[in-house]
Each structure stands twice: as structure tokens, then as C-alpha cells.
Design a protein that fits this description.
- By secondary structure, this protein is of the alpha/beta class.
- The chain is built from 16 helices and eleven strands.
- The strands form two sheets. Strands 4-3-2-1-5-6-7 form a seven-stranded parallel beta sheet, with helices on both faces.
- The protein binds magnesium ion (MG).
- Magnesium ion binds next to helix 6.
């Protein structure tokens, strides 16, 4: 990068956002921060703003930092053509509209927000194509695939790895009675709470299949999931001729975050320690147990149905996860509730963005109502 890349981060106080700022600090002479946006963690956002000196900040609660202009909404960031790239690192549906706006303004997107593609993958990818915008995935699996693909037309299959989460080798019974603390103990990755619960039920993998379908334009039948407990192989692709290309590395989000915000260039980054095949010694792989983790099957099913099916799946699952985190339901009920709500959904085949948000709201209300009756 000859001149500094101008970047904004939506969700700078979250898990991905804070790690992105660590990356930017490490290669600080490559970036100029235009805006930082956070939610309710105003104190952290203030500290970040004082340290990184963005031009603008936005928070969902009032904030004031001397020398930094406070914005009124996320759209003001998404519309600002000073940006070369926006890292969408917030979680939840709040990421969707600013991402679309940024795409309309021709700004590249480093995408860490899952809901954007799960809720509105067709709309987002079509818009990105129309506006010639790059969408570079931050999620380790999609980032791995992005790094492996040279000529997408020659690729037959995407192979997405899953760590299997904390219950991989536990019995169904043990999983059913899992506490919130046990569920939040992910063996490999350090992430936010919602995604950690999704990793325990494997719904996270389900959502990633849907994202992969949109990002790379592959049929669901050509997207495979394999359990790989060490999380060293971040994903792989199979070419027509039988060659497999995989991307490997230690499980650290700094690497995919840096890849996404510096693409197509590479720089020396944050390394906790150096990679050694000999030290790792072995890599294990196994078939996912869809009986124990039925969420993956449900996600494939929703993905194949298309339209608003995946938005419904996402909303029902998220509300059930929240209920679990609040101690209202048990872990296995997340799937049961999601399935119940999902099965009653009338799919809109080609929805517009407002219809997607309507379905999201309706599904959440129905899920909350359903959970209330259960407890
Ligand atoms: Mg992932």
C-alpha cells in the first residue's frame, strides 16, 4: 500500500473490532482511521478514539471525545467516500443496512458480520457485483477459502472445517444438561458469547455454510463440513482435478482480520508464536455427527429453501440463544425452538430488504412468545 488505506470500523469495541485495532496498531503506518463506531461500551470507544484519533465516532449512546466529531448514525460512516474499506465487525442485524449503503457508495467491505449474508446474501452479493465492490471475508473459514481460490471456475467443492466446539466428544446427555459456563468454554477460539454458543451447537457452522454459498456462489451440495478439532486447517477447496488446497495457521483472529483489511497485500503481523508442523504433530478430521448436532442439517435445509428461510432461521436461533444465556432454557432447546419456529415460516422467495427485516422482527417476536409459554 503506497498511500495509507482509509478505514472505518463498525463495531470497534467488540471481539473482532478490538483485535482489528491491535492489527492496525502493529502496522499503523499503513492505515488512516476515518471512523470508529461502537454500541454501548462508550468508555472503551472513548479510549480507542483518544488513542487512534479517528476523524469521527459514533455510539448508540451519547459520546463526546475532544477533537473528534460525533456522528448521528452508522449511515454517515457508510456514505463517507473517504473510506477505502469498512470493516463491519458488529454482530447482529444492525450491520446489514450500513453494509448495503457502503456497497452502494463503492466502498470495499471487510465482512465479519454474519447476519449480512445470512439474512440478505442474494441482495448484498448482487449489489456488490453491480458496484464492483470487493467483499473480503474476515471469518477464518471464508477467509481461508478466499486465500485458496485462484480460479473459482475450476473449483468443485468447498470444505469448511469445524472445531466441533466444547461438546464434540461429550455425550448427548451431557450436552443436554450443559451449563452456560460450560458452553462458553470454547476449546480453540476466543469470541463473543452469542457466537460461542452457536459454536457449541454447531449452528455457527450452519450459518457459515449459508455465508459460503453466497460469498463464493456454490450450491449447498458442493459445500462440505468436516470436523477438525485442532483448528489448524481453517478450510480447504477441491479443484476439478482432485487437488486440495487448504489454508493453515494457528487459530488467531488477527491473521484473517489483517488479511481482509490489507488485501491483496500482506505485511508482517502479530504472531503469538511461530507455526511448527512438528510441534502440532497431528491433524485429526472426522465426519460431523448430524444426529448430535442437528442444527447443521437445519441450516442446509434453510439455505436450500432460500428467500427469507435463512433470515427466519437466524432470528429464531438468536432469540433462543439469548434465552439460553439468560438461563431460561436448556442448551438443546435452542435447536428445538428454532426448528419449531422455522417450520411454521411462510417463505418469501425473492424478498426485498424491508420484507427481510419484517420477517426478522416477526420471527423474534414469535420466538420470544413461544419461549415464554415454555417456561
Ligand atoms: Mg468461523
Amino acid at each position: 500500500m503506497e498511500k495509507k488505506r482509509k478505514i472505518s470500523i463498525i463495531g470497534s469495541t467488540g471481539s473482532i473490532g478490538t483485535q482489528a485495532l491491535e492489527v492496525i496498531e502493529k502496522i499503523h503506518n499503513k492505515f488512516e482511521i476515518i471512523a470508529l463506531a461502537g454500541g454501548k461500551n462508550v468508555e472503551l470507544l472513548k479510549t480507542q478514539a483518544e488513542k487512534f484519533k479517528p476523524k469521527y465516532i459514533y455510539a448508540s449512546t451519547p459520546i463526546n471525545v475532544s477533537g473528534v466529531e460525533t456522528l448521528n448514525n452508522l449511515d454517515e460512516i457508510a456514505q463517507n467516500k473517504e473510506n477505502d474499506i469498512i470493516l463491519v465487525a458488529c454482530s447482529g442485524k444492525i450491520g446489514l443496512k450500513p453494509t448495503l449503503k457502503a456497497i452502494e457508495n463503492g466502498i470495499d467491505i471487510a465482512l465479519a458480520n454474519k447476519e449480512t449474508l445470512v439474512m440478505a446474501g442474494d441482495i448484498v452479493m448482487k449489489k456488490a457485483k453491480e458496484h464492483g465492490v470487493n467483499i473480503i471475508p474476515v471469518d477464518s473459514e471464508h477467509c481461508a477459502i478466499h486465500q485458496c481460490i485462484k480460479d473459482i471456475s475450476q473449483v468443485d467443492k468447498l470444505i469448511i472445517t469445524a472445531s466441533g466446539g466444547p461438546f464434540l466428544h461429550k455425550t448427548v446427555e451431557e450436552m443436554k444438561n450443559a451449563t452456560v459456563t460450560e458452553t462458553l468454554k470454547h476449546p480453540r477460539w476466543n469470541m463473543g458469547k452469542k457466537i460461542t454458543v452457536d459454536s457449541a451447537t454447531l449452528m455457527n457452522k450452519g450459518l457459515e455454510i449459508i455465508e459460503a454459498h453466497h460469498l463464493f456462489g456454490f450450491d449447498y451440495d458442493n459445500i462440505e463440513v468436516v470436523v477438525h478439532p485442532q483448528s489448524i486447517v481453517h478450510s480447504a477447496i477441491e479443484y476439478k482435478d482432485g487437488s486440495i488446497i487448504a489454508q493453515l495457521g494457528l487459530p488467531s483472529m488477527h491473521i484473517p482480520i489483517q488479511y481482509a483489511i490489507t488485501y491483496p497485500e500482506r505485511f508482517e503481523g502479530i504472531k503469538s508464536h511461530s507455526f511448527s508442523f512438528a510441534e502440532i504433530a497431528r491433524l485429526d478430521f472426522e465426519k460431523p455427527d448430524f444426529e448430535k448436532f442437528p442444527t447443521v442439517k437445519l441450516a442446509y435445509h434453510a439455505g436450500k429453501l432460500g428467500g427469507t428461510a435463512t433470515a427466519c432461521l437466524n432470528a429464531a436461533n438468536e432469540e433462543a440463544v439469548f434465552a439460553f444465556l439468560e438461563g431460561k432454557i436448556k442448551l438443546y432447546q435452542i435447536y428445538e425452538i428454532t426448528k419449531k419456529i422455522f417450520e411454521k415460516h411462510d417463505i418469501i422467495k425473492v424478498p426485498n430488504i424491508d420484507e427481510i427485516f419484517d420477517i426478522d422482527n416477526e420471527t423474534r417476536a414469535k420466538t420470544i412468545e413461544y419461549i415464554k409459554k415454555l417456561i
